[in-house]
TrEMBL record, chain A:
Compartments it resides in: Cytoplasm
Subunit structure: Acetyl-CoA carboxylase is a heterohexamer composed of biotin carboxyl carrier protein (AccB), biotin carboxylase (AccC) and two subunits each of ACCase subunit alpha (AccA) and ACCase subunit beta (AccD).
Similarity section: Belongs to the AccA family.
Protein name listed in UniProt: Acetyl-coenzyme A carboxylase carboxyl transferase subunit alpha
Catalytic activity, EC: 2.1.3.15
Cellular component per GO, a single term: acetyl-CoA carboxylase complex
Main localisation: cytoplasm
Role noted for this protein: Component of the acetyl coenzyme A carboxylase (ACC) complex. First, biotin carboxylase catalyzes the carboxylation of biotin on its carrier protein (BCCP) and then the CO(2) group is transferred by the carboxyltransferase to acetyl-CoA to form malonyl-CoA.
Domain CoA carboxyltransferase C-terminal span(s) in chain numbering: 30-284
Biological process per Gene Ontology, one example term: malonyl-CoA biosynthetic process
Record-linked SUPFAM superfamilies: ClpP/crotonase
UniProtKB/TrEMBL annotation, chain B:
Family the entry assigns: Belongs to the AccD/PCCB family.
Protein name: Acetyl-coenzyme A carboxylase carboxyl transferase subunit beta
Top-level taxon of the source organism: Bacteria
Catalyzed chemical reaction(s): N(6)-carboxybiotinyl-L-lysyl-[protein] + acetyl-CoA = N(6)-biotinyl-L-lysyl-[protein] + malonyl-CoA
Residues covered by the CoA carboxyltransferase N-terminal domain: 46-307
GO terms, biological process: fatty acid biosynthetic process; malonyl-CoA biosynthetic process
Native species: Sediminispirochaeta smaragdinae (strain DSM 11293 / JCM 15392 / SEBR 4228) (Spirochaeta smaragdinae)
Function (record text): Component of the acetyl coenzyme A carboxylase (ACC) complex. Biotin carboxylase (BC) catalyzes the carboxylation of biotin on its carrier protein (BCCP) and then the CO(2) group is transferred by the transcarboxylase to acetyl-CoA to form malonyl-CoA.
Family matches, as InterPro entries: AcCoA_carboxyl_beta, Acetyl_CoA_COase_Trfase_b_su, ClpP/crotonase-like_dom_sf, COA_CT_N
UniProt remark on cofactor binding: Binds 1 zinc ion per subunit.
Length: 335, 307
């Protein structure tokens, strides 16, 4: 116990130093990061940039790879019934341990040719609308939904703007928050901003050990906030985008360990870990009463951000209201 | 915020401030202005002409005309407080949640200082002002975002204030109107800022479930995470003429497709033509339009709140 406390104090001091160093001296910051990894690193505190590189590794299993390993008789279903089909977003129905489920996910390519077809996993509005259509279908027929998130972001192109990429994502966020069947989201690689969130609203959100999830790429953050594009490594650290960071921030429900060497080296072992988790969680969530499911999801979404922070008065103001917010919408009935 | 770089040079985000009045009854005068508001105003003050069409005009006349150029119809940027004054019945606005402060969840270097500076300059607690007011005697929950407070970026507090405002609309059974102006998510709050997209969109879903109308007025500029969340979820979406509205900023798109964007791309009129905005509504008609919308969305007796 004493050792643990000591470790905590050390960790705290180190964090403080790192924060100071980040403002003053990049070299010192990097040195401190190395010390942190060496002395505190229990595998969970790896260098953020290494995780970013791992998450982007082109030989990491993609959504379709996991689908192949996890679901029986997967049948891909295409199109948004409005303007087209988007190969950067795939979806369909399949069976998981004998139960019919709906699966949607971003789809990256393995090589240049595939990536040109899949648009590097950057979905257009059709992709988000297709995903919503399939999830709505799942709701009608009582199938649980599993989403695989793996995208650098939604596609920032001319035609995607013309067809309303903002509206498509916004609609998904709104609709997914009220769907009456369980939704489990798993970030398998890159969780890039709004493009990831567009299929990332659910009852439980998990991340693979080496996945990352952030509001902007570290490169983008570096060039805008730090005014130096070469500081991407520093930005990755500052933005707290690794699985363990996000667990600490209360944004995700848990971390799924990858097989030895990472998912790209042990895809099967990684898929097996996902299977164990899904078996438990799908079972649990489908047994829940659907109105309870939806109101719990509601509470979870509304409390996002209230969890923020260090100490201080501001924190307590937000915290005090945490339980109250939902009551404001639904009256004072017992929760 | 993600696409803020697209606006470099046009504005000076983060360094700015709106002027602040606690209540609208304190008449706006002088005060510190920033970014586009300051630049445009000082142009008119010094050149006595519209920066867009160069028509001769004085600042006082411009103000009388709701900060719209009588010549070319250019809509000048206005502060959140000016917007409230132009829309709400005199003295009717009551601000809420003006003490909330972010907890700086990532302990991002320099963020706390930047916020303190913005807050002191702006005398606003965050990038949105929320409260309840009346418009032509009709009660309304009103939120106005301010681009000059750190680029109107959405962090935990902006999200919190919007969620709370939605809850006020539900409790008081009144419509909700939001003016948007934002560069997107607040990067300094990392993933927490991204979560505000889900959170505010969910609040919009709850409003809908409770049968309450939700109106949006998109103002210049509205991009990034705000466009991809509550801004696109209004039952009726209005936009100010010429406002830039999009998900990705123009520079990001240009660097992706490696070609110049067509004239008028992502402007309010473009979004209207593409079907994502119900109406482009000039400032002069806004009060009337909002009144009409409130009346048209009432399931209950019209006489209940009028007079």
């Amino acid at each position: 116990m004493r050792g643990f406390m000591k470790n905590k104090a050390f960790e705290k001091k180190l964090k403080e130093l790192k924060r100071l160093a980040a403002e003053e001296h990049m070299g010192v910051f990097e040195e401190l990061s190395r010390i942190e990894t060496k002395y505190l690193g229990n595998g969970r505190q790896g260098n953020a940039w290494e995780r970013v590189e791992l998450a982007r590794n082109s030989s990491r299993p993609t959504s379709l790879d996991y689908i192949e390993m996890l679901f029986d008789d997967f049948l891909e279903l295409k199109g948004d019934r409005s303007s087209g089909d988007d190969p950067a977003m795939i979806g369909g129905i399949g069976f998981f341990s004998g139960r019919a489920v709906t699966v949607v996910g971003h789809q990256k390519g393995r090589n240049l040719k595939e990536n040109l077809y899949r648009n590097y996993g950057m979905a257009n509005p059709e992709g988000y609308r297709k995903a919503l259509r399939l999830i709505k279908e799942a709701e009608k027929f009582g199938r649980p939904v599993i989403t695989f998130i793996d995208t650098p972001g939604a596609y920032p192109g001319l035609s995607s703007e013309e067809r309303g990429i903002g509206e498509a994502i916004a609609r998904n966020l709104k609709e997914l928050s009220r769907v009456s069947v369980p939704i489990i989201c798993i970030i398998i690689g890159e969780g890039g901003s709004g493009g990831a969130l567009g299929i990332g609203v659910g009852d439980e959100v998990y991340m693979l050990e080496n996945a990352v999830y952030s509001v902007i790429t570290p490169e983008g953050c570096a060039s805008i906030l730090l005014r130096d594009a070469s500081k991407a490594k520093l930005a990755a650290e500052l933005m707290k985008m690794t699985a363990s960071d996000l667990l600490d921030l209360g944004v995700i429900s848990g971390i799924i360990p990858e097989g030895p060497g990472g998912a790209h080296e042990s895809p099967e072992a990684t898929a097996a870990n996902i299977r164990i988790l899904l078996e438990r969680r799908i079972d649990y969530l489908t047994r829940r009463n659907s109105s309870r499911l939806v109101s719990d999801r509601s509470a979870r979404l509304l409390s996002m951000g209230s969890i923020a922070g260090r100490s201080g008065e501001a924190f307590s103001i937000l915290q005090k209201e945490k339980g109250g917010i939902l009551n404001r919408f639904f009256g004072r009935k017992k929760r | 915020m993600k696409f803020l770089d697209a606006f470099k040079g046009l504005f000076s985000p983060g360094k700015g401030s709106d002027k602040r009045k606690n209540r609208v009854e304190q008449k706006p005068s002088g005060g510190e202005k920033s970014g586009a508001v300051r630049d445009e105003r000082s142009f008119v003050e010094n050149q006595h002409s519209c920066p867009s069409c160069h028509l001769h005009i004085e600042l006082a006349d411009l103000k009388k005309n709701l900060f719209v150029c009588p010549g070319c119809g250019h809509h000048f940027s206005v502060t959140a407080w000016e917007r409230i004054e132009m829309l709400a019945d005199p003295d009717s606005f009551r601000e809420s949640d003006d003490v909330l402060e972010t907890a700086d969840p990532l302990a991002f270097p320099g963020y706390a200082e930047k916020l303190t500076a913005s807050r002191q300059k702006a005398k606003m607690n965050e990038a949105i002002v929320t409260g309840v007011c009346s418009v032509n005697s009709r009660e309304l929950a009103l939120g106005v975002m301010s681009f000059s407070f750190m680029g109107g970026s959405m962090g935990a507090v902006v999200g919190e204030k919007i969620v709370r405002l939605c809850s006020v609309a539900v409790q008081r059974q009144i419509p909700l109107l939001l003016f948007t102006a934002s560069g997107g998510a607040r990067m300094q709050e990392g993933i927490i800022s991204l979560m505000q997209m889900a959170r505010t969109s969910h609040a919009a879903a709850l409003l809908e479930e409770k049968g309450l109308p939700f109106f949006i007025v998109l103002t210049h500029p509205t991009t990034g995470g705000v466009t991809a969340s509550f801004a696109m979820l209004g039952n009726v979406i209005l936009a100010e003429p010429g406002a830039l509205i999009g998900f990705a900023g123009p520079r990001v798109i240009e660097s992706t497709i490696r070609q110049k964007l067509p004239e008028g791309f992502q402007r309010a009129e473009f979004q209207e033509q593409k079907g994502f905005v119900d109406r482009v509504c000039p400032r002069s008609k806004l009060r009337k339009t909002i009144t009409l919308l409130i009346d048209a969305h009432r399931p209950y007796d019209l006489s209940r709140q009028s007079g």
